[in-house]
Design goal:
heterodimer; A: about 350 residues; alpha/beta; Rossmann fold; 2 domains; 7-stranded mixed sheet; 5-stranded mixed sheet; about 35% helix; B: about 375 residues; 6-stranded parallel sheet; about 10% strand; magnesium ion binding (chain B); DH_E1 (chain B); thiamine pyrophosphate (chain B); branched-chain 2-oxo acid dehydrogenase activity (chain B); THDP-binding (chain B)
C-alpha cells in the first residue's frame, strides 16, 4: 500500500485545534522539536493551542518559560545552535516587541554570519489581528516588521487545513519562520486531513486561489481571507467576478500566482488589518505594478486598517477593513463611481 | 552606606598579590585546591598566552592605524581574566564570547586571523564554532549572547549531556560579558532563565571599569557580584588581574555546573587599559591617575614576578618574547594576504532554503553586471 492509498484520517477541527494537531505531529515525528512559551504547558496556552501537549510529551519538550519574550527567543537561538527546532509561542502580537532584537538581529542573521554553518530552524507562533474586543496590545498586526527583515520567512494562516499543514512545514523548515495565527478565526471549523506527508503538500511559500474570478484580483491573508471570500460572494450579486487569493506566505511572496491572476483581471485589491504605511500591501502593489504594469487597468488599491495605534476595542469595528470596505476597494479598482460619495449616500 | 559597583569591601578572591607573591586571601581559601591542580607548565602556559596576545593586540591596533582594519578591539589589561577562565574550560564545553576575548578564542583553537578578517570587513564572523573549540561567534549587540549561552546550556540538559557524574564528559557553558552589557535586559533575562532551569553555566562578567566612556558606577549601584545572589546563584568577585584567581574560581564553578549544581556568576575586577576600540579616545573621559593605578596592577608583570621568584629560566622568558613577536608578525603577514570574497557571496546563506526573492535579485544583479562586460566587448 502506498502513501496515496493509505486511508486518510479527516477530522473536523477548529483552527486552534488544527495547530495543536500539527504541533503534536511535529513533536511526535522529531524529538528535536521543543515548544517554549508562557503558560503553554500546564495551562495549554491562553488560547489552548498547546492543550495537552505537555502532558503527552513532558516538561522537557513543552517548556513553560519565565515571563520574558527576549528570553524565550534568545534561549531558542541557543537551542537551535545545539540542534533543536524550537517552536516559540508569543502570547499576543503586541508582546513580540521585547523579542524584536533577538528576532531581527540574531535569529534572522546567524545563518548568514556563520556562512551557512549554523541553522536557525525556529518557528515563532504569533496570534495576531483584532476583532475580538480585547485589551490594548492584544489585537495588533506586526507582520510588516518581519517581512522587511531578510533572513526571516513570514506566513499567515487562514483556515484549519493550512494551519495544520503550515505549522508542520514551518517547523520542518531550516529557516526561521514567523507563523501568524488569526486569533479571531481560532474557533472556525473545517475538515482537516491529518495524514498528509509534507512532501506531498504544496510548498509553504505558495499562494492559493480561494475563489476563482475574472474581474478583480483580491489578495488577503490571515483573518481577512474569510472576509474577502464573503465579499467576493456579495460582489457576485452585483455581477462582479472577484478572484480571491490567500497569500499564505508574506515573505517571500508568491508573485507567480498573483501575476497570473492580475494579467487576467487587470485589477488588484490588497486587504490587511495592519495600517498601510510601509505595509505588505504597499510592497505588493509596487512589485505587481513593476511586474505587470501594462496589464493593469487601474492602480492597485489597498484596503487596510488606518495608520493609527490600534484603537480601543469598542471602536475597532471602525478601524478594521470589513466586508463593506473591501467591496468599496473592489469598486475603486473597477473605476466605478467614487465609493466615498456612495458612503455619503448612506452605504 | 550606599553601595558602589567598585566597592572593594566585597570579598574579592585573590591568590596572587600585585607584587607577584603567592598569598591567597581569606576569600580565596575554598579555591586553593583548584589552583593546586595546576602544574609549573600550566603557569608558564598562562604567561605565554598573556604575553603573546598582548603583543598580537598591539600589532592588530597597528594594522588598524595603517588602514588595514576597519576597527580593532583591544584586550590589553584583561589578559589574566581571559586566560585563567579559558584554561578552566574543558574540551566539551561551549564558549560564548562578547567581542574582546581574542585569547579565549586562540586557546580554544580559533585562528586569530579570523578575527582580523572580520574586522577588516570581509566577514560577519564566519568561523564554525564546532571546528574552533566550540568558540561561538562574537556578538556585538551587548548581552544577546548571554541568552544564547543559556539556551545552549538548556540543550545540554535536554540531551542529558551534563550532570551524569563524569567530569570528563559532562558539558558546561561559559559566557563572557561586561559591566556595560550587564545593564541590558537580555543579561537579566539570561540570569533568570539560568537560575530557573539550573543550567550548567558560568556567567563571566569582566568589569573593566568602562562601557566606552561611561564608568561602571553608572551601570550599577551595587557590586555586580552581589547581583548573582539576587538571581539565586552562586556568585564571586575575583581580582581579574590575578590569573590564578580567574582559573581557580572558574574551574570550581564550571565543575559545579557540570555536576548539576547550577549556574554561577563571576565578576572579574580588571581594567581596560586601552581604548574601547580604535575609534575611541579615552583621554576625554578617564583620569591619568586611574590608569596609572591599574597599570601598576598589570597582570603580566604580576605573573612574571611570580615566575621569577620561583626561579624560572631567563631563556623561557626570552623564548616567550620571541614567540610573541613571531606570532604577531605571522598574524600581520596573513592579515595582509587576506583577500575579499567574491561579490556573489552577499547572496549566499541568507536562507538555508532557496528563496524566491533572493533568486530574483541575484539573477537581476548578475545580468546587470554582465551588461557592462557586454558593453565593453
Amino acid at each position: 500500500m502506498t502513501m496515496l492509498d493509505a486511508p486518510v484520517d479527516t477530522q473536523t477541527l477548529t483552527l486552534a485545534n488544527a495547530i495543536n494537531a500539527g504541533l503534536r505531529r511535529a513533536l511526535h515525528d522529531d524529538d528535536k522539536v521543543v515548544l517554549l512559551g508562557e503558560d503553554i504547558g500546564t495551562l495549554g496556552g491562553v488560547y489552548r493551542v498547546t492543550d495537552g501537549l505537555q502532558r503527552e510529551f513532558g516538561a522537557r519538550r513543552v517548556v513553560d518559560t519565565p515571563l520574558a519574550e527576549a528570553g524565550i527567543l534568545g534561549t531558542a537561538v541557543g537551542l537551535a545552535y545545539r540542534g533543536y527546532r524550537p517552536v516559540c509561542e508569543i502570547q499576543f502580537d503586541g508582546f513580540i516587541y521585547p523579542a524584536f532584537d533577538q528576532i531581527v538581529a540574531q535569529v534572522a542573521k546567524l545563518h548568514y554570519r556563520t556562512q551557512g554553518a549554523v541553522r536557525m530552524p525556529i518557528t515563532i507562533r504569533v496570534p495576531f489581528g483584532g476583532g475580538i474586543g480585547a485589551a490594548e496590545h492584544h489585537s495588533e498586526s506586526p507582520e510588516a516588521y518581519f517581512t522587511h527583515t531578510s533572513g526571516l520567512r513570514v506566513v499567515a494562516v487562514s483556515n484549519p487545513q493550512d494551519a495544520y499543514t503550515m505549522i508542520r512545514q514551518a517547523i520542518a523548515s531550516d529557516d526561521p519562520v514567523l507563523y501568524f495565527e488569526p486569533k479571531r478565526r481560532y474557533h472556525q471549523k473545517a475538515p482537516v486531513e491529518l495524514d498528509g506527508s509534507l512532501s506531498l503538500t504544496e510548498p509553504m511559500g505558495s499562494a492559493r486561489v480561494v475563489v476563482p474570478g475574472d474581474d478583480v484580483t483580491l489578495l488577503a491573508y490571515g483573518p481577512l481571507v474569510q472576509t474577502a471570500t464573503d465579499a467576493a460572494r456579495a460582489a457576485t450579486a452585483d455581477g462582479i467576478s472577484v478572484e480571491v487569493i490567500d497569500l499564505r506566505s508574506l515573505a517571500p511572496v508568491d508573485y507567480a500566482t498573483i501575476e497570473a491572476s492580475v494579467r487576467r483581471t487587470g485589477r488588484l485589491v490588497i486587504a490587511h488589518e495592519a495600517g498601510s504605511q510601509g505595509g505588505v500591501g504597499g510592497e505588493i502593489a509596487a512589485s505587481v505594478t513593476e511586474r505587470c504594469f501594462s496589464y493593469l487597468e487601474h492602480a492597485p488599491v489597498r484596503v487596510t486598517g488606518f495608520d493609527v495605534p490600534y484603537p480601543p476595542s469598542r471602536l475597532e469595528v471602525h478601524h478594521l477593513p470589513g466586508l463593506d470596505r473591501i467591496l468599496d476597494g473592489v469598486d475603486r479598482a473597477l473605476g466605478r463611481s467614487n465609493s466615498l460619495s456612495e458612503l455619503e449616500a448612506g452605504w | 552606606m550606599a553601595a558602589n559597583s567598585n566597592d572593594f569591601s566585597v570579598p574579592t578572591v585573590q591568590l596572587l598579590a600585585p607584587d607577584g607573591t603567592f598569598a591567597p586571601n581569606e576569600a580565596a581559601e575554598e579555591f586553593v585546591p583548584y589552583f593546586e591542580r595546576l602544574t609549573d607548565a600550566d603557569h608558564e602556559r598562562f604567561y605565554r598566552e598573556m604575553v603573546v596576545i598582548r603583543r598580537f593586540d598591539r600589532e592588530a591596533a597597528n594594522l588598524q592605524r595603517q588602514g588595514q582594519l576597519a576597527l580593532w578591539v583591544p584586550s590589553h589589561g584583561q589578559e589574566a581574566a581571559q586566560v585563567g577562565s579559558a584554561f578552566a574550560t574543558r574540551p566539551q564545553d561551549h564558549i560564548f564570547p562578547s567581542y574582546r576575548e581574542h585569547v579565549v578564542g586562540k586557546m580554544r583553537g580559533l585562528d586569530v586571523v579570523d578575527v582580523l578578517r572580520m574586522l577588516k570587513g570581509l566577514t560577519l564572523g564566519g568561523w564554525v564554532p564546532e571546528e574552533n573549540g566550540n568558540f561561538h561567534l562574537y556578538t556585538l549587540v551587548l548581552a544577546s549572547q548571554t541568552l544564547h549561552a543559556t539556551g545552549y546550556a538548556m540543550g545540554m540538559q535536554f540531551d542529558g549531556a551534563t550532570a551524569t557524574g563524569d567530569p570528563e564528559r559532562d558539558e558546561a557553558v561559559i559566557v563572557y560579558f561586561g559591566d556595560g552589557a550587564s545593564s541590558q535586559g537580555d543579561a537579566s533575562e539570561a540570569l533568570v532563565f539560568a537560575a530557573s532551569y539550573q543550567t550548567p553555566q558560568v556567567f563571566f562578567l569582566q568589569n573593566n571599569g568602562w562601557a566606552i566612556s561611561v564608568p561602571a558606577s553608572r551601570q550599577s549601584r551595587t557590586p555586580f557580584a552581589l547581583r548573582g545572589h539576587g538571581f539565586g546563584m552562586r556568585s564571586n568577585r575575583i581580582d581579574g588581574n590575578d590569573v590564578f584567581a580567574s582559573y581557580a574560581v572558574t574551574a570550581k564553578h564550571l565543575d559545579d555546573a557540570r555536576a548539576g549544581r547550577g549556574p554561577a556568576l563571576i565578576e572579574a575586577m580588571t581594567y581596560r587599559v586601552g581604548a574601547h576600540t580604535t575609534a575611541d579616545d579615552p583621554t576625554k573621559y578617564r583620569l591619568d591617575a586611574d590608569l596609572a593605578d591599574w597599570v601598576a596592577k598589570d597582570p603580566i608583570v604580576r605573573l612574571k614576578a611570580y615566575l621569577e621568584n620561583r626561579g624560572v629560566a631567563q631563556s623561557f622568558l626570552d623564548d616567550v618574547e620571541q614567540e610573541a613577536a613571531d606570532f604577531a608578525s605571522d598574524a600581520r603577514k596573513r592579515a595582509l594576504e587576506v583577500v575579499a570574497p567574491d561579490q556573489d557571496v552577499i547572496f549566499d546563506n541568507v536562507y538555508a532554503e532557496a528563496n524566491a526573492t533572493l533568486v530574483e535579485e541575484r539573477a537581476w544583479f548578475e545580468a546587470y553586471e554582465a551588461s557592462f562586460e557586454e558593453a565593453q566587448s
